[in-house]
C-alpha cells in the first residue's frame, strides 16, 4: 500500500478536489487582468480581456483597416470579408480564453474611451523560461496618437511584474516601419533577422527580431 493511500479519507478528498479545481480553473499569475485605466491627452485607455460582445466593433474596424492590417497578418485562403466576419471573432475569443486559462496567452483588447481600439497580446508565454512574444495592432482612428506606446507600456509592465517574464520578443515583418519605430522608441533592441520567418500578407517574409529585457526600458 502506498503512502498516499494511508492518508486519512478527508485529506485525500481535499487533495483530489484541489487537483480537480486546478484542472478546471488553473491559476496563472497575470491572468485574468485589467490594465489601467489611465488618462492621457484627454483619452481614457485600458487593456482588458476580449469579450464575445466585441465582435461587431472588431469586425467593423478590421474591415475598415484592411489595407493597413493585411500586409502584416498571417496569410490566409479566406477573403478579407470572411476573415473579418463576427463569427471569426467569436471563435477567436473562445479559443484565446481557453489558451489564456492554460497560461500560454495573455490576450487584451485595447479600449479607448470605451471604444474598441485594437489588440495587444502576449503569445507563446513560456512561464518556465520567462519569455513571451508581443503582438499588437491599433485601429487607424488612433494611429499617430499615444495609444500604441501607452498600450505597449501597460502590457510590458504587466508582463515583467505580474506575469513574471524576463524577456519579451517581437518579430516585425521587414518593411513594417510603424511597428519598428514603436518598439525602438520603447527600448526594444533589434537582435537579428529571422529569414522567411512567417507567411504574411500572401508572401513568405523575413522578420526582424526585436527584444526587450527589463534593463533596456528606462521608463519601467
Ligand atoms: C504598429 C502600430 C501598432 C503602431 O501604431 P501607430 O499608432 O501607427 O504608432 P505611431 O503613431 O507611434 O507611429 C510610429 C511611427 O510610424 C509611422 N507610421 C505609421 N504608420 C505608418 C505606415 N503605414 N507607413 C510608414 N510609417 C508609418 C508614424 O509616422 C510614426 O513615425 P514618426 O513618429 O517618425 O512620424 C500600428 O501602426 C498598427 O496597428 N499597424 C498594423 C498592424 C501591425 O503592423 N502590427 C504589428 C505587427 S509586428
TrEMBL record:
Name of one Pfam family that matches: Acetyltransf_3
PROSITE patterns reported for this sequence: GNAT
Gene3D superfamilies reported in the protein's UniProt record: 3.40.630.30
Coiled coil: none
Residue stretches making up the N-acetyltransferase domain: 59-216
Xref: SUPFAM superfamilies: Acyl-CoA N-acyltransferases (Nat) (SSF55729)
Superkingdom assignment: Bacteria
Protein name as it appears in the record: GNAT family protein
Originating organism: Allokutzneria multivorans
Lineage: Bacteria, Bacillati, Actinomycetota, Actinomycetes, Pseudonocardiales
